[in-house]
Amino acid sequence: MRIAYQYKLRPTKVQAAEIDRWLSMLCAQYNYLLADRFNWYEQNRSPVNACPLVCHLPELRDNPDYYSQKKTLPELKKSHPHYGDIYSQVLQDVVKRVKVTFDRFLKGDSNGKKSGKPRFKSRSRYKTFTYPQMKEDCLQDNLINLPKLGLIKVVLHRQLPTGFKIKTAAVTKKADGYYITLSLEDPTVPTVKPDINPESISGIDLGLKEFLTTSEGEVVAIPKHYRKAQKRNIVVQKRVSRRKKGSKGRQKAVKQLGRQHKKVADKRRDFHFKTANDLLKKYDVIVHEDLNIKGLSKSKLAKSVHDAGWSSFLSILANKAENAGLLVIAVNPKNTSQDCSNCGTKVPKKLHERWHSCPHCSCNLDRDHNAAINIKKRAVGHSVLKAKSLLSNSRIVLEAYTYCEAEV
User: Fold this and answer.
1) What are the beta bridge partners of residue 5?
2) Contact indicator for 128, 94 with CB cutoff of 8 Å
3) In angstroms, rounded to a whole number, what is the distance separating the alpha carbons of residues 209 and 222?
4) What span, in angstroms and rounded, lies between the C-alpha atoms of 230 and 236?
5) Which of 34, 59, 330, 375 has the greatest number of C-beta atoms within 10 Å?
6) Cα(133)–Cα(185) distance, rounded to whole angstroms?
7) Helix, strand or coil for residue 217?
8) 298 to 258, 276, 301, 309, 360: CA distances (angstroms)
9) CA 406 from centroid of its chain's CA atoms
């Protein structure tokens, strides 16, 4: 099993300056390696519908892949000796990041979905470097030993789980300081998930009036973290725009604005985790709509959709459910608000109409509650639920057979 814990770092001024210097050099190397790949891509491709009959191709060179770019690092340290101050595996991880980024652009990810063209990173956008391997005894009390950076104080707000070993460590610079993300692994934790109860199921309807409504009628109010912090954000944003570009005053105001936005993001993330935990404590199966959140975030409701953070919440809910051995199912969202949850008749409603009143069966419900019930019903007979149910029944039969055999 693999999990990640994030802690706050308390580096000294010398260590903080060294981390910033590393980030600056790694950013330059990332851009150089990415430019090398782009040069090869532009020089060696030729559109099929625009190739002339007689053409003079330049001398072709080998594709700069992961291994060939990795071999250039010793020469880099000879031509630029200051790169020798960076831990070798951290420098090698930059080559891997370039490879992953460029492969997603050309080939796509594991699902075949391609990403956009990679962009060169400015110094302010390159904020993380990774140690691909860590020693077992790297964490000593409240100090962590990072190669070539030394012992750095870390705020252990929670202890590492028993049996887990530190595999990788990623140092990140954020608006309010430095953080370290430890990737932990314990191969002894079983991957077989415990049996779930298909009857303990709830449908949730995400909204902008209320954050979510369950099929049992429970309502979670929407906190509107960004809306509440908007007045303060405007004041700080004006402070940035009034400062002269390149001045120390502007840099100070930008840091203040970054801390303000991070505070809003932290509050929203904390709310998402607590809401997901509350749902998974009550139900074994959670059903939600398979929403096109990317499309909704470009509509007139964009600010409210971003403030609610549906995508982040559903991702957290799915991850927490997987770790707990529970189930999260996404269903087709078409007409969940329009169809009557009692008789199934379509009752057209505009967006501002918040009450469902069916003229055929006299069903009267809140619009979101009606939608949540429809979402729950659409999960009935789902292939994943059927497989879980069959697995659970087969285990019950096997246990009963074993028990009878023991009695004999």
Assistant:
1) 182
2) no
3) 7
4) 10
5) 375
6) 12
7) coil
8) 23, 26, 8, 14, 37
9) 49
Say which residue the tokens 């028993």 belong to: 162
DSSP 58-77: PPP-----HHHHHTTHHHHH
Which residues of the chain fall short of a pLDDT of 70? 45-61, 189-195, 381-408
CA atoms of 145 and 9, how far apart (whole Å): 12
- Using CA of residue 183, residue 319, residue 178, residue 174, what is the dihedral sign? positive
CB-CB neighbours of 336 under 10 Å = 21
Bridge partners, 174 (sequence order): 177
Is beta strand 143-146 parallel, antiparallel or unpaired with respect to 201-206? unpaired
Which sequence spans correspond to the domains of the chain?
2-44+58-185, 201-400
> Starting from the edge strand earliest in sequence, which strands make up the sheet with 177-185, in order?
128-131, 165-174, 177-185, 2-10, 150-155, 143-146, 139-140
**Distance in angstroms (rounded) separating the CA atoms of residues 283 and 321:** 10
pLDDT at 379: 85
For tokens 């992961």, what's the residue?
66
Distances (CA, A) of 53 to 49, 60, 75, 77: 11, 19, 41, 45
pTM of the model: 0.81
In the numeric block, the tokens 């997603």 are attached to: 104
**pLDDT value at position 137?**
87
**Helices 225-242 and 248-282 meet at what angle, rounded to 10?**
170
Ramachandran assignment for 112, one of left (phi > 0), alpha (psi -120 to 50 degrees), beta (any other) = left
Q: What pLDDT, on the 0 to 100 scale, is given for residue 110?
A: 73
